[in-house]
Amino acid sequence: EDLWAPDPPSTSHALAGAGIIVNLSASNEYIGKDSYRNMLVLSTSARLLCGYVYASAGEGESSTDLVFGGHKMIGENGVMVSQSKRFRTDILYGDLDIKKIIGERRRRTTFCQTEKASYRRIPFKWKEVETKLSRTFDKAPFVPSDQKMREERCEEVLSIQSMGLKKRLEHTECKRGIIGISGGLDSTLALLVTVRAFDLLSIERKQIIGVTMPCFGTTDRTYKNACKLINTLGVQLKEIDIKETVELHFRDIEQDKDKEDLTYENSQARERTQVLMDMANQMSGLVIGTGDMSELALGWATYNGDHMSMYGVNAGVPKTLVRHLVAYYGDTCKEKPLRDVLYDILDTPVSPELLPPKNGDISQKTEETIGPYELHDFYLYYMLRFGFSPEKIYRIAQIAFAGIYEKETILKWMKVFYNRFFSQQFKRSCLPDGPKVGSVSLSPRGDLRMPSDASCTLWQRQLEQLK
Description:
Layout: H1 9-15, E1 20-25, H2 33-47, E2 51-56, E3 72-76, E4 79-83, H3 98-107, H4 147-172, E5 177-180, H5 185-200, E6 208-212, H6 220-232, E7 236-239, H7 243-253, H8 262-283, E8 286-289, H9 293-298, E9 311-312, H10 319-332, H11 336-346, H12 366-370, H13 373-386, H14 390-400, H15 407-423, H16 425-428, H17 457-465
Parallel strand pairs: 1-2, 5-6, 5-8, 6-7, 8-9
Antiparallel strand pairs: 2-3, 3-4
Helix pairs in contact: 4-5, 4-10, 5-10, 6-11, 7-8, 10-11, 13-15, 14-15
């Protein structure tokens, strides 16, 4: 009667440390009961953060007054892993991820596990063998594969972002928004969110200043798209060419302008941020940040450059989701000019555009330098959401990306991910405010209270053993 009791034994078992609850039940059948039973298994496994194995009595029981259907289910943290058909005699198999269960309990502050003397603990050992997994792993865990669910997710995320910014604007009594527009995906999404927030506040869009700041790496394509986007949305366009200012800065610090090193790149990013901050001071405005969660995870941002703003609307959005949010906005908007420019931005390679173009085309492509974002987002999700080890993430990544990436490629970029994630925490430790939109967040004030000098040794040691 565990599922049906108001204070079931499984609650006490779970709080004593049980990760898997097995319920041998004598639940008879009547019309509609299977759906209710299904809901109880799912809700119990979600509430107790456990694996719940349920087996009802079946064929062979007396049918004097009742019929038993042999309903079998395996639930895990609110998800149905496997379920049998009723009125059949068979064996049900399914995978339960114990480390995932432990990770969920560690994250949940309300789950207070305690040792209880009344429980008898029986130790046992089993032979460890590698089995074929029946479960699958989505290669894009932040993005629903089902189109209807994906569209609903996109609308929800845009609403969370715009409502977060709306609240900040109200609190600061700010009527102006200052945002740098590059013609890339991140700044495009940030501007779309800003427009939504201003519309919600009934503030005219001309109070938003879209600033384009061309420099050494800006291409005609991104520059034109930035201007088209700003004008199409009815936002005020401000163009400030920063080449001369950056060159003057190079002279001040004795930087060779032909030496295209890190100083060459970061000087441009910091100059852009200085322009935006000073404009905000002039206009009593709010600088809206454009950097996304994937960039923050990898530290792919200039410290005190594009890393800094007054409110970062994209801070909780991974790169793989940014693309779908912009696509969703384009698919659902009624204005053809806006739709056309959004589609062209989606078709543009991801780049910070800090190095001069070659033959008019973008020469600096982010994913050629730090690796594919779809891999990094996969690593990020399973590391932070469930606390999986590099060994486990490597195994499931090979399953998720089978036929797309070789295992050597997966391992190569995993090493880059862990190295950058740990070494770049100092940037995340002083992040501006920004809304959390999903179950993974990098906020130093919330989900990721990680010291800036945390050691990566244990993770690196495990990575070196992988083949």
